[in-house]
Amino acid sequence: MTALFALATSLLWGLADFGGGLLTRRMPALTVVAVSQTIAAVALGALVVATGGWSEAGPRLWFAFAAGLIGPLALLCFYQALALGPMGVVSPLATLSVGIPIGVGLFLGERPGPLQAAGIVVAVAGVVLAGGPELRGAPVQRRALLLTLCAALGFGTVFALIAEASTTVEGLFLALFVQRVTSAVLGGATLYAAGRRGTAPLPRQGLPWQTLPALTLVGLADVAANGTYATAARLGPVTVAAVLASLYPVVTALAARGVLRERLRAVQAAGAGLALVGTVLLATG
């Protein structure tokens, strides 16, 4: 079940990142983050009320609060990097985030078996190959690289925090709600501050209402991915859950290939294949 939930995480995050990157090419990244996180917070609030999640309030929610502060900053950096593109490069580089939850898992005493250890190495190598060749080909701006590295650090920290934020399903809903409310408040405050400084937080013609469905999907997919990852980390080793969840760049790269016609080189296809082999090793180990 750990593998199933972690792979669902990679699918959801991959699609959310692709959608967020596309939206950021039409409006400021801060607007995309703030609006999508607010929509997710409203949906989670209704879910918490429906499931009685308020009864699970406790000290662990501080982990969710911290994740809510770090998450939107990481997303902001990541969406800006995706907008600079190419997505097939930026997204795989963000998998460096996997190092943080793996390190936490090892520190807590987790020791993957031989097949799982091999799967971790193969999967990470595959994801890196899926984006690495473009570093010498299509130009990758230094700003995009720096933004991606900052995003990876933030994502890895959120991975570790959200895995510790709850021990029950109802508690998970509440933790994700606290995380998203924190993110929405931080994003709204930043938008307001940007407006006060004279920086337009919205496109000149205002928020394109036709983008609301896409913003909703991005926000809900992102929060659902957090939920499936937390479940995967609770059911099995964090090291395995983190690596399988980190396969989301393959989804983003394939979506960019299918929709934007970004070229997928032979070595990138081989990297995607290695990532799948690593997935099988992790799931069977």
UniProtKB/TrEMBL annotation:
InterPro entries: EamA_dom, EmrE-like. The chain crosses the membrane at residues 28-49, 61-82, 115-132, 144-166, 172-195, 235-254, 266-284. Residues 3-130, 144-283 form the EamA domain. The keyword Transmembrane helix applies. The keyword Membrane applies. Keywords: Membrane, Transmembrane, Transmembrane helix. One of its GO terms (cellular component) is membrane. Belongs to the EamA transporter family. This is Membrane protein.
